[in-house]
Amino acid sequence: MGKLKTHRASAKRFDVTAGGKVKMNHAQHRHKLGLKTAKRKRNLRRGAILSPSMTPAVRTLIQK
Q: What is the value of pTM for the model shown?
């Protein structure tokens, strides 16, 4: 039986917590920051937990 290779682009973007949840960073925090409110930019700095429906797909890609 063959093995799946780790999807390296996904492995660099996602991380798995000890409880098995998948952590991610927010997008939209690179440019055009002048028109975004301070509250929005502050919330984009923090990480987020991936939705439960997407977690199995990402875990398959990153092999964790």
A: 0.82
Residue 27 within a domain = yes
> Are 61 and 22 contacting, i.e. CB atoms less than 8 angstroms apart?
no
| C-beta separation of 6 from 64 below 8 A | no
Residues of the chain with pLDDT under 70: none
CB atoms closer than 10 angstroms to residue 14: 20
- Residue 42 in domain: yes
Tokens found for residue 62: 């990153």
Contacts of 41 (CB under 8 A, 6+ apart): 29, 33
**Total tally of structural domains belonging to the chain:** 1
Round to whole Å and give the CA distance between 4 and 50: 22
Residue 1 falls inside a structural domain? no
Which residues span the domain enclosing 53?
8-62
